[in-house]
Amino acid sequence: MFDEKDKLLLRELLKDGRQPITELAKKCGMTRQSIYARIKELRKKGIKFTIDIDPNVIGLKIKAYILIIAEPQTEFRKETDKIIKTFKEISQIHYLLGRFDIIVEVVVRNIDELRGVLRRIQSLPAVKKTETLMVYETTKFDPKDPIRKLLE
Questions:
Q1: Distance CA 73, CA 95 (A)
Q2: 28 Cβ partners below 8 Å, 6+ apart?
Q3: Are 67 and 39 in a shared domain?
Q4: 32: domain range?
Q5: Residue 143 lies in a domain
Q6: Cystine design at 126: which of 32, 76, 79, 150 (Cβ 3.0–4.6 Å)?
Q7: Is 29 exposed, middle or buried (0-12, 13-18, 19+ CB in 10 A)?
Q8: Residue 60 and residue 37 share a domain
């Protein structure tokens, strides 16, 4: 999918996505034009260039994971999925195999907001039961690490 030059470019962009193209060209041993063309191709492949904000810095102090057991009926699940995707406090939704059907990551300012999100989730058509796990400390959060490993 990616050749060695793409991997080198992606590693550099992971370090600092705001590097000037001339600097990237030097570090990658390519011309500015080839860097520009490769970045254009990476965008076409779905790679996005964006900012990374620590939620704590902007006042989002509470992170919790809500595990959900859902009704098995497809129509209830589809309706619930459509609604839950609109919750701006939810950053991730994953469907699971195992004891629970869904896990959502909630990031909010305070316990009152968490309580409100939990009530809204519990009122959804397919939700039978929830279990909430509140994060009190994070010792590692680096979703780019697996990508770095792949690019090595």
A1: 15
A2: 5, 8, 9, 12, 35
A3: no
A4: 4-44
A5: no
A6: 76
A7: exposed
A8: no
> Are 55 and 107 a contacting pair, CB within 8 Å?
yes
CATH assignment of the domain containing 116: 3.30.70.920
In total, how many domains does the chain have?
Answer: 2
User: Is 149 within a domain?
Assistant: no
Global pTM reads 0.86
Same domain, 95 and 127: yes
pLDDT digits (tens, 9 = 90+) for 121-143: 999 999 999 999 999 999 999 99
